[in-house]
Amino acid sequence: MTAVEQTADDLEHLNAQELVAEAVARYPRLTVATSFQKEASVILDLVMKADSSVRVFTLDTGALFPETRETWAKLEAHYDIKIEGIRGQQLERHWEQSTDSCCDLRKVVPLRETLATADAWVAGLRRDQSPTRADTPKLKWDLKHGLWKLHPLADWTERDVWRYIAANDVPYHPLHDQGYESIGCFPCTKPGAGRDGRWSGDTKVECGIHVAA
Ligand code: SF4
Predict the structure, then answer these.
(1) What's the rounded Cα separation, in Å, for the pair 201 and 83?
(2) How many A from CA of 99 to the centre of ligand 1?
(3) For residue 191, is it within any domain?
(4) What is the C-alpha to C-alpha distance for residues 57 and 79, in angstroms, rounded to an integer?
(5) Residue 209 lies in a domain
(6) How far apart are the first and last CA of the chain?
(7) Model confidence over 11-65: pLDDT tens digits?
(8) Rounded distance, CA 95 to CA 185, Å?
């Protein structure tokens, strides 16, 4: 077993709060990538309670729902923080030509550039969201970006997420109440269970930012 695997296994038993506390202690350049979905609301609440100075950013694709921007503003006000909007190249209605290339320019490239200055990042992936996420560990070495990646909600269910939001009075994206279980850009998101509403009718299931190298 490599040193990297040992460290990752070491943290698998921690619950979400413990994992976030450990991450804050271990990684001075910890950063949070937020999508403003319900899991992102929980992550933000956990991180802000552990250390409100942690850098938080979102990939502002230029194709966000108005409700996403409202949630962005609501979370900034709730935690009294600034959530950075990171923009990549945005070609006009590029998603109509190629969703892969559009995701690459608007998400994958700017994420890579942003993570270059961090030593660990936190994301809200859960194992039960889709088969592609079933093996999500709580901590892993992100080979593609060259830093640690944490998934504090890896073993949470949908119900766990909603229970936390209700118990902690956390602001959340209003489209979840209109049948959208997963929310991305408006041209590529429809209401649906799990991630069914993302790139609906296409074989595409991930934008690429959470896909290993
Ligand atoms: S989700 Fe759609 S609009 Fe957003 S970056 Fe990907 S292809 Fe473009």
Answers:
(1) 32
(2) 6
(3) no
(4) 14
(5) no
(6) 20
(7) 899 999 999 999 999 999 999 999 999 999 999 999 999 999 999 999 999 999 9
(8) 10
Q: Specify the pLDDT at position 1.
A: 42
Q: For 134-163, write each residue's pLDDT tens digit.
A: 999 999 999 989 999 999 999 999 999 999
To test ligand 1's pocket by mutation, which of 103, 108, 209, 211 has the most ligand atoms within 8 angstroms of CB?
103
Pairwise CA distance, residues 170 & 192, whole Å: 23
Is the beta carbon of 16 within 6 A of some atom in ligand 1?
A: no
pLDDT of residue 66: 98
Residue nearest to atom 4 of ligand 1 (CA): 185
Active site residues: 207
Which value, to the nearest 10 degrees, does the dihedral of the CA atoms of residues 36, 42, 48, 50 take?
-150
Mean pLDDT across the stretch 126-140? 90
User: Which of the listed residues 91, 99, 111 should we mutate to test ligand 1's pocket, taking the one with most ligand atoms within 8 A of CB?
Assistant: 99
Compute the distance between CA of residue 45 and CA of residue 39 in angstroms, rounded to an integer. Answer: 10
Domain presence at residue 197: no
Q: Is residue 212 assigned to a domain?
A: no
| Domain total of the chain | 1
Domain holding 45, by residue range, is: 3-173
